[in-house]
């Protein structure tokens, strides 16, 4: 049966994913393991951006600012609280600060989402663009607290309970565990009534209102949930890098998140995973290409290769890498005589049954 085949294929993908999760830190060097830990950080952030932009249709260029909220929640707690009370354990504070960073960012997302109700499209993008630009000078302004461009150095994470792991392996497993925990509710919520309401708003405000969807509530909620994920990602980044600096959260970070989302696949639950891999590893690949020399001369700069590779991906996968893989799987199943396409999370161009959001 078709359903039985889909379940078997899903189980195979899950087992392959778990196998890769366990094997990667065993076969990679210290730097590569650290970079895979960063993939988990960006995965959390892009999942949140996917909810806001991919599913609810609100373009944001400011999620790097919400990552800054999470990053500085961790940095300030771990750096300052033990100086005020030496009995506090910096390691314990680090782990406690991660959910707290997400909660504070969630509140910030709601506060930004309320005035953003009056904006849409390019105007909303410009407003969040301004938010992204303001975070670095704002953090530098409060130098006595944030230490400005000097940044705040945090204790390097060490495996607890005497686990036989290196620091980089512990970062890898912890970051991916948090990413997996947060990935599940995101996948469930986009399939729920809330997710259907977001998609109805994305496709047509008027149709969503006619179906009884409260646009203000759901748009603001999308901002809050997206900011929560970004805040947790910012805390994880501070935990992983053991360092927080205002320059880490500038416009470049927000653009990288948006690039990862579009390249991975808008409104596709697996898109953020592919996008996170791309924004971490594609620059590394571009740099290796730039190191190739012909006649003793370098080919070109790494950023040129990076831009060219992004253009090629967009050209051959206009619906993102997740969409490209989905089409390949449907083609494969058609060859096997599966008799139809696998059920997927609706992509951005797919029609939405707004009546289902009632």
Task: Explain what you see.
With 358 residues, the protein is mainly alpha-helical. It has one domain. The chain is 71% helix and 2% strand. It is built from 14 helices and four strands. Strands 1-2 form a two-stranded antiparallel ribbon. A two-stranded antiparallel ribbon has the order 3-4. Helix 3 crosses helix 10 and helix 11 runs parallel beside helix 14. The longest helix has 27 residues. The relative contact order is 0.16. The C terminus is likely disordered.
Number of strands: 4
- Distance between the first and last residues' Cα: 33 Å
Q: What is the ordering of alpha helices and beta strands?
A: HHHHHHEHHHHEHHEEHH
Q: Which term fits the overall shape?
A: globular
Q: Rg, please?
A: 21 Å
Oligomer: single chain
Give the neighbour order of strands across the main sheet. 1-2
Helix content: over 70%
Q: What's the mean pLDDT score?
A: 87
Q: Ranges with pLDDT <50 over ≥5 residues?
A: 338-352, 354-358
Percent of residues in beta strands: under 5%
Reported for the largest beta sheet, the result is: 2 strands, antiparallel
* Helix/sheet category: mainly alpha
* Integer count of domains: 1
- How many helices does DSSP assign? 14
Summarize the structure.
It is built from 14 helices and four strands. The chain has helices spanning about 1-25, 30-55, 65-85, 90-115, 120-140, 145, 165-190, 195-205, 205-210, 215-240, 250-265, 270-290, 300-315, 320-335, and strands spanning about 150-155, 245, 295, 295-300. The strands form two sheets. Strands 1-2 form a two-stranded antiparallel sheet. It has a two-stranded antiparallel ribbon with strand order 3-4.
